[in-house]
Amino acid sequence: MFGDIVSNPYHVGALIRSDLTKALRSLVPEMLEEAQLAIPESLKIPGSADSVTLPVFNTMVNLVAHVSNRAMIGAPGCRNDRFLKRQVSVAAQAIPMAQVLNWFPKFSRSAVWKLFSMLAGSKDECVALLSPYIQSRIDYAQQDNPSTITDLLLRYAPKEDINDAKRLAIRVVHLNMASIHTSSIFTTHALFELARLPTSQIEQIRAEMVAAIDSEGGVCNKAAVGKFYMLDSLLKEVGRYHSLFAVGSSRVTLREAVIADGIILAPGSVVSLAPKPLHYNPEVYPDPLTFDPFRFSRLRTGEASNDARQAFTQLSNDYIVFGVGTHACPGRFFAALKIKVILCEILRNYDVTFPEGASTTPKPFAFNVFTVPNPTARLVFKKRKL
User: Fold this and answer.
1) 124 burial class (0-12, 13-18, 19+ CB within 10 angstroms)?
2) What gap in Å lies between CA 226 and CA 32, rounded to an integer?
3) pTM of the prediction?
4) For the purposes of burial, counting CB atoms within 10 Å of the CB of 223, is it exposed (0-12), middle (13-18) or buried (19 or more)?
5) pLDDT band at 118 (very low <50, low <70, confident <90, very high)
6) DSSP β-ladder status, 248-252 and 51-55
7) Rounded Cα gap, residues 68 and 178, in angstroms
8) Distance between CA 264 and CA 59 in Å, rounded?
9) Cα–Cα distance measured from residue 270 to residue 65, given in angstroms and rounded to the nearest whole number
10) pLDDT-based confidence at 300, cuts 50/70/90?
11) Nearest to 380 by CA among 46, 52, 56, 59
12) Dihedral, CA atoms, 143, 144, 145, 148, nearest 10 degrees?
């Protein structure tokens, strides 16, 4: 389905692990501008009304797709609704289908996948819609002064990919697939939690964001976003409290291994980590059954304000949302910035509440080992008078 991206994953290696992280400073203004344009459209309030009630997860998926692709391919491609719809469909189809394939014998999986891809069609249409924008980056992008992630991709693309925009488009579709839905899940859970907070705590978060932006001369840049400690804490608590998966960080043993309690793992064994026993460990997280939005920001006060150990993106053996070790999620810094930019714009311009009489604890939807926010749960977005 995705060509040679497994055998030659150059789009994941140096690009995401190094170049993308270095380029985040220049991508934040782009994502901020797109968020400022896309949020009023996504949360469009009809007529003379002062609020709108929307299903949050689907709304955030579409919004995140806009903002992600401003960084990924730039404008105007990030505003092509047909492309964005197809891109969202690719992940919606491919991720569950990858799990379904495990129900089939190995010899039949390739045929089943090809048949499904032909019937679904989202990937091929998505690539076709995306390719003209990729070609424009090939023709005009400056690799030494990149303005999109695709520009960075061109640094490592082999000649055959540069000569065929569709090959590069497949890479971008794959990067988008990994980026959009995970960011949307975090953003949705964060909005549910923000809607549950008392007004006084929302105002504390807003005040900290305004102070951070003012400290950078009134500009919401990467440095300012890095000072959103309360929002960062809330996102980290979302990752701790709302497990995105039942098991993750799966690895396959290449040779026989013996673990600490003496169990022998044969070659080819699949080993996975379950996040809940780690994230709900009372020895590490006091009162672990309670969602505490400021659990981590309280540890970053005074001289400890720059304590990176409490940051949302920080890896540890007690917090495995992004995996552990060498193979931890390399795009987590991009995702964190993107989510914070979106939430900052929403919080600064809207009051967010649950509809009257609606449950304030919408039950998540689980499929196999994955969990996503309740897709039917709604929130009320009321425009603030600034």
Assistant:
1) middle
2) 14
3) 0.91
4) middle
5) low
6) unpaired
7) 11
8) 47
9) 33
10) confident
11) 52
12) 30
329 is in an annotated binding site: yes
pLDDT, tens digit (0-9, with 9 covering 90-100), for 18-46: 788 888 999 999 999 999 999 999 999 99
Query: Residue 1 — very low, low, confident or very high, per pLDDT cuts 50/70/90?
Result: very low
Which tokens is 180 given? 């959009």
- For residues 155 and 144, what is the distance between their CA atoms, to the nearest angstrom? 9
| Average pLDDT over all residues of the chain | 89
Q: Architecture of 14-227+349-383 per CATH?
A: Orthogonal Bundle (1.10)
Identify the band that residue 99 occupies on the pLDDT scale cut at 50, 70 and 90: low
Q: What secondary structure does DSSP assign to 78-92, as a single string?
A: GG-HHHHHHHHHHHH
Radius of gyration of the chain (CA): 21
pLDDT tens sequence across 130-159: 999 999 998 886 666 678 999 888 888 888
- Amino acid sitting at position 119: L
Nearest Cα residue to 343 out of 379, 291, 300? 379
Q: Tell me the helix, strand and coil percentages in the chain, rounded to 5.
A: 55, 10, 35
Cis peptide before 373 (omega within 30 of 0): no
Q: Where are the domains of the chain?
A: 14-227+349-383
